[in-house]
Amino acid sequence: MELNTEESKISEEVxxxxxxKNQQTYSxxxxxxxxxxxxxxxxxxxxQEQLGNExxxxxxxxxxxxxxxxxxxxxxxV
Length: 78
Prior knowledge:
rod-shaped; 78 residues
């Protein structure tokens, strides 16, 4: 008889925990943390893209300068 009572209690607890698990959602604070993290990640992506664009511009400018210098050097040696 005691075994059946314990088994019944355990079964009720398992059912209660299953219901609780099914009802769980993100809390407001968790959602805000996710939103903040998303915004920070977006800002970092934008920053890295801008940095990449600036570096690309610097590379193009240096290539242009090298081309001009190379052309001027060739003209001076002819």
